[in-house]
Design a protein that fits this description.
Layout lengths: L10 H13 L1 H34 L1 H5 L1 H29 L1 H20 L4 H29 L5 H25 L6 H7 L2 H12 L5 H6 L3 H11 L2 H25 L3 H9 L2 H19 L2 H14 L5 H29 L1 H28 L6 H5 L8 H5 L8 H6 L2 E4 L10 E4 L2 H9 L4 E2 L8 H20 L1 H8 L6 H53 L8 H10 L4 H14 L1
Antiparallel strand pairs: 1-2, 1-3
């Protein structure tokens, strides 16, 4: 990501990258040290999904209040929005290196606060600190790597940073699984994130500032010294000249556009090309979030429990599959995005996502309608005080099944011999749950026993496979290409904020939606919104594959029309003639 985006790299560039890194290990050290920021970003995205299951166990108020769970998850996103905004200013004012160091400090503090949190509000505070660090790292790490690495392998090194993000997500699921039987479970899961931040902080102390930033600050000799370490002798003079020309061009552009944000925004929105590019950029970023991807990443084990897998460790083990598929999909994207085009990949991805969301709607609907029924006899055998109050007061207890029990905020104690036979609907509480499990029964409070559970996991996996190579990375690539050069930072920044804000809205409302609409209704809602997103991409987002920045500007200046409208206009012209 540069200015909130991923720089594409083709197969040839990756080959050149490995060759260059072998010849100049300094480049590898520089990219790896800065790339830990991507690892931290990915780790934080994934770790909360498993930690939340155990936080609910330790704090009854979190278990009982859906909004508290959503807040614990989403406050890191809210912090990241602020961190990304402040990070852009810090990058320009103090440099890339100090910004990464500050991000590490914030991340480390947040990890410690969460690890030793005595109450849920302290966890939320720690999540905000971590969010600040994530937001700053997401802006700064790719920028630092791109400015301090050779131009010919820049795309592949920044793409490696994107791979580290998905790698961090996969690692978080592995660590979650490793600590399921350890005392303190979620404290270890959240606290261990401080270790990579600690390592990166000391590695960054040994690395230099970005040569481009130093040049802009007229610290020319320091910048040249760094470039001599990065480039071979026969290339360094030419690169110094290119850097000097680039910085002078940027300064001339600033004089035209203006240095203060108000002047830049005024000129940008007065430019028709920028406005059309921004509409396309925001469309793909918002569509990326409203397909519901971060509900899967943030709440994956919870969704697996909805599907009928009561065991927390089983839920996390199955969630590991989705995370691994996400990482594989990121690699696949690098090899296909330049072959098949951005627009086509996104539209194919959206069709696949909508299909998977509809399939998940059907699966969860069938699971709900075929949930085991409630036996009044089974329910009362645990004692009147243990029976679910809503079930006791219900006039239509004959219609109650496990899903009715779970929706009433109670727990379903499955039949001892067969989970699919009528079971007990009990008041939710640790003591009563202990009574149920003490009789070697399975206790369900997020989902119900279901023969359709494996299908839910299958379609979640297919959902990730169709998301990652298309809607996962392509929207960022589009945003790195769609804006006029002078407004690229502004456009990318606005689009990134729209992405983070959509992420916040989706993650803050998912559990509330599942309570109000049910799992099936929630996935159907996402399918409907995704269909609107597909239509918007078709009509508003042009293909930028193989086009120079100048050609993209010319296309936007003329106005983009999809093939359907071009054919319609051609027919209208013929009939008029």
């Amino acid at each position: 990501m540069v200015d909130g985006g991923i720089v594409k790299a083709d197969k040839t560039e990756f080959t050149e990258c490995f060759r260059t890194v072998r010849a100049t290990p300094y480049i590898a050290k520089l990219a790896l040290a800065a790339g830990i920021g991507g690892l931290l970003f990915g780790y934080d995205t994934g770790v909360i999904s498993g930690a939340l299951l155990y936080i609910r166990e330790d704090f009854e108020v979190v278990d009982k209040k859906t909004w508290m769970q959503e807040t614990i998850v989403s406050m890191a996103v809210a912090g990241a929005i602020v961190g990304a905004g402040v990070g852009g200013w810090l990058n320009d004012r103090f440099g890339r290196k100090p910004s990464i160091l500050l991000a590490d400090v914030l991340f480390f503090i947040g990890a410690l606060v969460m690890a030793f949190a005595p109450a849920p509000w302290v966890i939320i505070l720690g999540r905000i600190f971590v969010g600040f660090g994530v937001g700053m790292a997401s802006m700064t790490a790719p920028l630092y790597i791109s400015e301090a690495s050779p131009a010919r392998i820049r795309g592949s090194l920044v793409s490696m940073n994107a791979l580290l993000i998905t790698g961090g997500q996969f690692m978080s699921y592995l660590i979650n699984l490793a600590f399921t039987k350890t005392p303190g479970t979620w404290r270890w899961m959240l606290g261990i994130a401080g270790l990579p931040a600690f390592i990166q902080f000391f590695l960054m102390l040994m690395l230099p500032e970005s040569p481009r930033w130093l040049y802009r600050r007229n610290r020319v000799e320091e910048a040249n010294a760094i470039l001599r370490k990065v480039y071979p002798e026969d290339e360094v003079v030419q690169e110094i000249e290119h850097l000097q020309q680039s910085v002078e061009s940027e300064r001339a552009e600033e004089e035209f556009v203006g240095k203060d944000l108000t002047s830049k925004l005024k000129r940008a929105f007065g430019d028709r090309i920028f406005r059309r590019g921004l509409i396309a950029g925001i469309t793909v970023q918002v569509a990326q979030q409203f397909v519901g991807i971060n509900t899967v990443l943030y709440y994956s084990p919870t969704i697996v429990q909805f599907a009928g897998f009561a065991s927390k460790s089983t839920a996390m083990a199955l969630s590991l599959v989705t995370s691994g598929l996400n990482a594989i999909g990121s690699i696949v994207s690098m090899f296909f995005v330049d072959r098949y085009g951005r627009r086509r990949l996104m539209m194919i991805s959206m069709v696949g996502l909508i299909s998977c969301l509809v399939a998940l709607t059907i699966v969860f609907s069938q699971a709900s309608s075929h949930a085991p029924s409630i036996s009044p006899l089974e329910s009362r055998r645990f004692g009147t005080n243990s029976t679910c109050p809503a079930f006791q007061d219900a006039k239509d207890i004959g219609k109650w099944n496990c899903m009715s029990c779970v929706r009433a905020k109670c727990g379903f104690c499955a039949h001892a011999g067969n989970e699919y036979l009528p079971g007990a609907c009990l008041a939710d509480g640790k003591a009563i749950e202990g009574q149920c499990t003490g009789e070697h029964r399975v206790y369900f409070k997020n989902g119900c026993p279901s023969k359709f559970g494996f299908l839910a996991v299958l379609f979640l996996g297919l959902y990730i496979i169709t998301y990652s190579p298309g809607m996962g990375s392509v929207p960022w690539i589009v945003n790195s290409e769609i804006y006029p050069l002078r407004y690229r930072g502004i456009g990318g920044g606005i689009a990134a904020v729209s992405n983070w804000s959509s992420n916040l809205l989706v993650s803050e409302t998912f559990l509330t939606l599942t309570e109000a609409l049910g799992s099936a209704g929630t996935f159907l809602l996402f399918a409907g919104i995704s269909s609107i997103g597909l239509i918007a991409i078709y009509f508003l987002v042009p293909e930028t594959k193989g086009l120079s920045f100048e050609e993209v500007e010319m296309m936007l200046d003329k106005g983009f029309k999809p093939e359907l409208l071009k054919k319609k206009n051609a027919k209208d012209v013929e009939s008029t003639g």
